[in-house]
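re: ur question from yesterday

yeah so i grabbed the chain u mentioned. its 166 aa long if i counted rite. heres the sequnce exactly as i have it in my notes:
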Amino acid sequence: MDMQSHAGVDLDLLEDVLAQYQGQRGALIPILQKAQDVYGYLPPQVLQRIARSTGVAVSKVYGVATFYAQFYLQKRGRHILKLCDGTACHVKGTPVLATALEDHFGVQPGQTTEDGALTVEVVYCLGSCALAPVAVLDGQVMGRMRQEMLVRTVQKQVGAAGGEEV
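ran it thru and got these structure tokens back, copy pasting raw so excuse formatting
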């Protein structure tokens, strides 16, 4: 086993990113962004390696990674579904949509399906209140969502891309 591999995380993949920012002060956020591009999220081993390379305390690296919503500390699904739960969307049915997703796919907001196909996230206002309730699947905005339509759309998208059923 490669000495740079820790619990399934190949730290060799990070070396080009670290070399690119070697010695640059204030480069922590771009390093985290590029590391996340490489791994899809920021595993603990990656945060520790970034800390060692930059000379920044692990606690500060972790603090930055948890402060900004753009960073993820857990693996995310191949497909990302965001449910808006701002006031208009909440009143118009986001809780019912979340329940339908849980019933059909076995995933709650903030979780990823066991097969890694789908991550469901809750966001608090997408700025499309007139289309409430709103969901965004892989960047595609879907307004006036109803349970059956959402489940059908997610099933089609998630099943079509990987050929697997969820």
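noticed a couple things. Residues 131 and 148 are 17 Å apart (CA to CA). also The helical segments are 15-20, 28-39, 44-54, 58-67, 87-92, 94-105, 147-162.
anyway ttyl
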